[in-house]
Amino acid sequence: MSVQEYLDKHMLSRKIEDAVNAAVRAKTPDPVLFISNHMRKSVPSVITKVKARQILDSRGIPTVEVDLHTNKGVFRASSPSGASSGLYEAVELRDGDKGTYLGKGVSRAVNNINEKISEALIGMDPTLQVQIDQAMIDLDKTDKKGELGANALLAVSMAACKAGAAEKEVSLYKHIADLAGRTTFNVPVPAFTVINGGKHAGNNLSIQDIMILPVGALRFEEALQMGSETYHHLKAVITEKYGLYGCNVGEDGGFAPNISSLKEGLDLVKEAIGRTGYNEKIKIAIDIAATEFCIGTKYDLDYKSPNKSGQNFKSGEDMIAMYKELCEAYPIVSIEDPFDKEDWEHSKYFTSLGICQVVGDDLLMSNPKRIERAMQEAACNTLLLKVNQVGTVTEAIEVVKLAKDANWGVVISQRSGESEDSFIADLSVGLSAGQIKAGAPCRGERLVKYNQLLRIEEELGDQALYAGDDWRNC
């Protein structure tokens, strides 16, 4: 083949001429670089390689990381993991070999990506998120992604989403908004974890988290400042009352003083808020995670205290009375999982009282069927979205749409096992979730999400709408 034939076959002369003309029109000071970039953009991007590996999450437990290659670059993502998994959520594939990482290894999920998923996706357009996710779902062939592993599918799905944004030359949150059909960008109110209990800490506190919501801030930047200042005032309060040992932290970075009652923890947080001077601007949220201490139809609030366990059983009615009392005494605006995941009756009744936002986590498990039932029965009024419970970006977008169509609130949530991936920050803005739960305002795997929200707010400028007082209505 002659040089001219080669040029003609690939239409190189025309493409080069177009690039040169574009450089002249742009009056670029570096025409060679401009022409190089112009030529690169003229080539449609496709997935050329998908490479997975096993890394460690914030708890020192293995998780899946993926490098997805296109002719525009390499895009990395990793799957988060929770302390517990539910019957109705997508399946996280673990090796089960007790001799390696105590059975928590993810080499099977990694191999599924490198040997099966990679082959299925090579050549696909990274902007076509729905097709990419559907290809993986079809390859898995199970209802809960148990064949390939939801941790495998999610890492690839997130990496593909990042590659799609790069191909369109837009920020990740804008690409997600486009996928969801949204045109506005709400920066969420952060639910900062300040006290950990339950499975997330080694103290005697039965409930899982006490959080603060800076709803009175005008911008996310101000909200982050409020959260940080309150967190450090709380450290001082705890040190004064319990000594330095009380300032050990749980898995989400919240303090874990050896307190045994929810009221004791709320009093500490209330005092810390008072010291900041932000009294009317900061509200409180609590994650009860009641499934963890439900025994039959009773709730054992002392289940973590061996000497007391069984002595403080409460019925569903007792729990409702306790929540009413707490909401009157403290600025509590949100309660997550106030009852067991199968205690639909008490969840329905408590939600009907309209005392506060009622968030479904274990109740819903981000499962569309559970969400639809909860909507029909009005068993809660807010979705807690954990992306690894659904398994792909497309399905996460769909469940958020489902929630918003029902006028529910939406909380985009971290997991106790996190990585330095900031994906959920962009997801929360792209879907205008209104609320994000990413842990304490400390620890790198938590702060990477909050710091990314700072950057997004800065990039959006006047277009950035901090959810603030409208945190449930975005």
Automatic annotation (TrEMBL):
Give the residues the record marks as binding Mg(2+).
Answer: 287, 336, 361
Keyword annotations from UniProtKB, A to Z: Glycolysis, Lyase, Magnesium, Metal-binding
Q: Which family does it belong to?
A: Belongs to the enolase family.
Which Gene Ontology biological process is one annotated for this entry? Answer: glycolytic process
Catalytic residue list: 252 (proton donor), 386 (proton acceptor)
Q: Tell me the superkingdom of the source.
A: Eukaryota
List, for all copies, the residue spans of the domain called Enolase N-terminal. Answer: 47-176
Any one GO molecular-function label of the UniProt entry? magnesium ion binding
User: A single Pfam family, by name?
Assistant: Enolase_C
| NCBIfam families xref list | eno
**Cross-referenced SMART domains:** Enolase_C (SM01192), Enolase_N (SM01193)
Pathway the protein contributes to:
Carbohydrate degradation; glycolysis; pyruvate from D-glyceraldehyde 3-phosphate: step 4/5
Organism of this sequence = Dorcoceras hygrometricum
| Name of the protein in question | phosphopyruvate hydratase
Name the coenzymes or cofactors required: Mg(2+)
Enzyme class name: lyase
For this UniProt entry, what's an example GO CC term? phosphopyruvate hydratase complex
Q: What is the UniProt remark on how the cofactor binds and its stoichiometry?
A: Mg(2+) is required for catalysis and for stabilizing the dimer.
Task: Outline the extent of the Enolase C-terminal TIM barrel domain.
Answer: 184-474
EC identifiers of the protein: 4.2.1.11
